[in-house]
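Trying the structure run again after the queue cleared.
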Amino acid sequence: MYHHVSLDEPSEFCSDALQQKTILLPDECMQPGSNTSAFEVGECLAKKCRADITTDSGTCGEEIDTCCSVEEYQVESINCTNYELDIFVVKSCSCASCTPLEVKISGVATGLENGTPVKFATVYLNGDIKVRTTIVGSFEFMVNSTRSRWTITIEDDIYKLFLPASKVVEIFDDFNGLIIVEIKMIKASDPVEIDSAIDNMLMAGSSGSNVSNVLFEIPAHAFCYRNGSKYTGTVEARLTYLDPLNTSIIEHIPGSFQYVDDEGLTGDLISMGVFNLYFEDTSGQPIVLNQVVDAYIPVENGEKGTYEDFKLWTLNSQTGVWEHEGEYTDRRRKRRQTDNVWVGALADVSEQKWYNYDKVNRLSDNLCYFKIRLFKDKKQAVPIDYPSNGITVSTNIIRGRTLHTIAHYVYSPTSKCLNAPCDHENGFITGKTSIQLLSAGKPHPSTGIKYSISSDETVLTVQLISSVDGPFHSTKDLCASAPVDKSYLSFSYGITNYEWKFIDFPRQCDDKISKMNPLIRQRFWYPRSLHFNDKYSACFVNIKIQFRSGKDIHKGEMKLRAFSYGGYGSKIYGKILGIHESDVQGSQTYCLEYRCSGYIDTCNYSVCDKTIVRIILEYPKNILRCYVDESANGLENAYTYNHQNSDYTYFQFSAPHEEFGTNAGIHFETKVPAGNLENVKDDLKDECLDNSHYAVKFYCE
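Done. Tokens:
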């Protein structure tokens, strides 16, 4: 028996779409009585909904994609040192047209050992050929975001220096923008010569250990060429073994330690190792098997029962998950009697296939539960309760010769309790997005808990033991009821450069936007393009900082900032539209985004504005003096502020509306579709950084 709930009004589809969202205010905007500059602004989860698309005559209008978006809002003013900041706060959500979604996948493939670019390799997406890598190993292509899981596979099919690699990327259904992927590829092991006329045995295991984890029995006269002709003579066998106990390569092992059962549910695997096996003749020509090869786990006395459930699995390069290889069923064939554990038979080996010794990971009877908190920066000043993309939290446990992996894909970290076996062992816990490994922080509470963080800050090693205070709890209910700010494991994105926009989402003019206060509408970050209601502009400015020889700074001592204001003569004159900043690392070029000039009212083409851009360099005046040294010719309303006793200097100009040329340090693109803005901005910033012309040069001595 079930209950069917009917939603009649468009607003009902979005009644639960209002989510928490915390932003970080500039340091000088910290509120009285508060120890943080975090500020709650809310946002609408862009889930699909059903809008009323009937026309005035009562007939159905054109069918459009609709998503939950802002319905009610308010503007709150924040007092900061020397200025006032208006904050757009979302109060409720309702149904409106969706922003078109486009995703660019941009990546690079390099060798794991020495970073050698993997040149001209074929890149597949879910089994379909997309592009080839460039001479430096890079690749990029566009996809639509109708899927939430993609598998990227790269095959070095020209130079054949590396074995194929597969990486799984998981995203939200409504993800929009750029995904950056780094794929490390593994070279095949050096060949071992065997005689095709006799029985042979190949073995491999952990480096530095006398115990092998995998063993293969190759019968005599088992080789032929791909055309079927028999091969006799010396065989060069390449057995490449990836040890899962080597935690430094776990993230680079092809695929993920997961499988999909008969009901379509994802489960975790316990692994003894991943391997690739193929054969060549002495001239390098591939040869294949005409008989099956038995695969075993070598065991010592009394160990056999420990490994009897392990089977042979093959990586599906289209899905990135492992599939049970199945058992060879030729009853005429007899296997040799042995004390080793038989896990399966290899009937088809090639350099394109990865195998795994695995068994299904049955959950421990002694589970504990914990929560994850995400933060924007390593200082953990700004929590991220609803990330723009899901994260994968993996707990890896080493037991004997096996790696136990428990993976959780999480959308709302603070509202979900994850599980792990709590048997007083050490767990190696990582958090990652489709784009990056996150930085691990200390557990909360940390008193009395044994833990450490890896030198690259990506792996938390912690003893898995439940306690009353956490972070690991003995039951799911205790975990759920624990205060989210008291009991958790933490990860951060490591973002250090600050940015803030009054309203950062592009929107076409519709009934909802047209009813918005024009003075709010005109403060949208992206001006629209003339004659293109669904295309927008993005802008960057090139800034150079030069230090006198011998002068040095420490990270964090200096800050470069770009303030965007409403322009002269406009109704939003002097209103701060956005702030972008960067830490100063030394003498180099910096590129900061600013709000473009242009048609700033998406519902009224008669409203145009030239943004005032103020570039501010803040510095410690007790050890340095900085000033504007040069600026580009032709920038309108250019103004320089240099003061002997000040701890900052700035250069201000009115941003050009039409194409101005990159020789003035101004870089912008117009006619950009909303769904491609993030991709274009990345390219635009790279173009800006590669250009030697600047809008302003600061000199410090």
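Confidence is low (pLDDT under 50) at residues 1-7, 54-62. Worth checking whether this holds up in the mutant runs.
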